[in-house]
Amino acid sequence: MAHWNQDAAYALASYKILAWPLGAWPIDDDTFYSKMRWLFAMISELLLVTSLATEICLSCENSYEDPIDTYVVISSAILVLVKLSLLRMRRSTLSINLSCAIQDWSDVKDPISREIMMQHARIARTISLSLFYCGFFAFMLYMLRLLPFLNATGQRMYYLPTSCLLKSVSNVEYVVVTFYQVIQLFITYAGNCCTEGIFVGITLHLCGQLELLMINFRRIDQCKCKGDNIVAKLVVRHRHLLRLTETIEDSYNVIILTQIFTSAILICITGKFTSLFFTEFSIVVMIVMLLQSFLYSYAGDNLRDQSEALSFAVYNSNWCDFPSSDIRDLAFIMIKTNIPIRLTAGKFFYVTRATFTDILKTSVSYLSALRVMLEKQTTNSY
Predict the structure, then answer these.
(1) Rounded to two decimals, what is the model's pTM?
(2) Nearest to residue 280, comparing CAs of 79, 106, 66?
(3) Measured between alpha carbons, how far is 254 from 215 in angstroms, rounded to an integer?
(4) What's the pLDDT at 155?
């Protein structure tokens, strides 16, 4: 097991806070208790989706919940099911990424290299903590807005709209169900945010390692005097970073596709079921989902930029004075870097800031067309 030092804890420990209770922290020992935490989270989210879907089918007259809030909670729970399932399936490969990141923090000795790694760690923490706080604010807003007290008609109120499904329960059962619904909503919040936290942590760390590799290639002529085969070591390091990037792509491409697709659908649903102003809860949740989608595009752009810059760094090195074998290795690296590292959404399209804005504009365009159609139908009905 990799040794955690203070820098590694600063860069990665915050993501473990939400992932560990769900059994989703990849470098945990795959123990019975870890499996039970994961299984409890999955069953809780399945029950949440089932109960809300049943409540919608019942169409109870006493339902108090805003429909858009119900759809948002169902979509968030489905996202958690997808994310936790894929994290569990890919925990062995993701644990390699995290263990290598922790080892990098233990091995770094150069103050300049450490500062570059800290810069990327600060950016990752800023983005992920912003997501964590926004998600927690949405969670608390939902809790405070739907306090389970008796309403004016004496009807029991639940955190989740299940008043029809659970209309004949005892007082003790009501307290147990209410407490369990709080746990379900917390799992929904933690499951969504911890997945993106792990992703941004290891992806931006890889961006930092690619930047350090680029600096080493620029300084390669200064290291030749030591007599070591520096080029071979840098080639091995480049191949290692490429393998780590491939594991991230394989682990997260389905998650990215599901996240972007769900965010686009919710934009249209929110615009259809709300009037001029969105509800406060819907606004916060949409901000969280858009932040999640932007996070993937931001990390994808950074990886692409660093991989493209590596090719120029190799070319700008003093390669003409090297032996023919080293020149051949450098040429292979340049050929490899001509195909930049990119993250995809389900292997369908590349995830960049440009594609994020295109998807957002397309969703808003469909929303505008849908609202015009609904207004015309309303006008014609009169």
Answers:
(1) 0.84
(2) 66
(3) 33
(4) 65
Residue 114 amino acid letter: R
Beta strands in 106-220 (DSSP E): none
Total residues belonging to the chain? 382
Give CA–CA dist 167/152, Å, rounded: 16
242, 341 in Cβ contact below 8 A? yes
Distance in angstroms (rounded) separating the CA atoms of residues 361 and 292? 17
Q: Can you give the pLDDT at residue 277? A: 41
Give the Cα separation of 153 and 5 in Å (integer). 58
User: Please, what is the angle between helix 230-273 and helix 353-381, to 10°?
Assistant: 10
Give residue-wise pLDDT tens across range 12-38: 888 888 888 888 888 866 678 888 999
Residues 6+ apart with CB under 8 A from 183: 44
- State the pLDDT at residue 15: 87
How far is 98 from 6, CA to CA, in rounded Å?
Answer: 15
Going along the chain, which residue ranges are E strands?
344-345, 349-350
Query: Scanning the structure block, which residue is given the tokens 């469909």?
Result: 366
**Torsion sign, CA atoms 39, 42, 48, 50:** negative
Please give the structure tokens belonging to residue 145.
């807005």
Adjacent-strand bridge partners of 345: 349
pLDDT number for residue 150: 45
Helix 171-218 crosses helix 67-89 at what angle (to 10 degrees)?
Answer: 50
Distance from the Cα of residue 9 to its chain's centroid? 20
- pLDDT below 50 — which residues of the chain? 62, 64, 150-152, 225-227, 275-278
Torsion angles phi and psi, residue 231, rounded to 5: -60, -45
pLDDT of the residue at 222: 63
